[in-house]
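Continuing the series of single-chain predictions for the mutant panel. This is the parent chain; the variants come on the following pages.
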Amino acid sequence: MNINDLLQKYYDSKLGIVVSDTRRGELGHIRTIIKCTEALGIKSVDDLKFDRFGEIVQYYLTHTNSKNASINKYIAFLKAALRHNGYEQHPFLLTKKLRDDTSPVKPIHNDDLIDIFRVVNRMQKNKNSHVYKAALNLLYATGCRIGELLNIRIRNINIKHRTILLEKTKSKKERYVFFTEYHDIFILELLEKNTFSPYLFWNHIQNRRLTRDDVRQFHRKLAKQLGLNQLNARQYRKTMATDLAKVTGDNLKMLQTILGHSDIKTTQIYVDYTSEQAHTAYNIASKRLTSMCDSTIQDKYNS
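Parent structure:
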């Protein structure tokens, strides 16, 4: 079986099983795998020898910007396609995952966040300016994942109570997110200019729904304009979680509910406690530490 057919049959088998966002991602996997295997002369399953693994990895490291985490995803998809098509004993399945070199997402520095909103909230460049303005503000206000944000349906927005029902989430469970009075104006402007789509975010220039790539391209331009090393949608979620932790203390259950984490351990990892927060928490706890030490000293002298 040739590699193209192998991948396509696996992809077709999942029709109606996985969500559209996942299918788009898998199409990307197929394209990059085919490009790689064609460049290396790997045309069939028989050509996919165990020792070709190193060549595949080297191709991605040399000819693309992919890091180990992305390469592992491509290899995992290829292996899943092999298993699905009955190649359970194929030697390529014995190859090991590469070391994960993914850098953890860091919250946006407070000064940078102020600069981002200062620039974005003053934008009036084109018909999409208000769309990106609302997207960035709501990414931070709600803590939505980018996919969740772009799938918001207008019917699920409650302006009066400032809540949004997310129907499509990573955990496959519906949940509510919230926004503030300040953010009313962004949502109302979106509703005013989008009277034809059931979805909140619409690309008025391309006459279609706003996509991840649209937001990604916007962030690249914005990061370059502000002199930032990186800027992506996930950082707003991380920043919102960290900022909420500053005012809620150790109320991780509340944060877990807002962020939509299935496991509270994920929330514990997700919140990025800064040294400033640690120092504040210590100062609060130190009152008890001081009182305990002081009482011990007093007891010593009294005895």
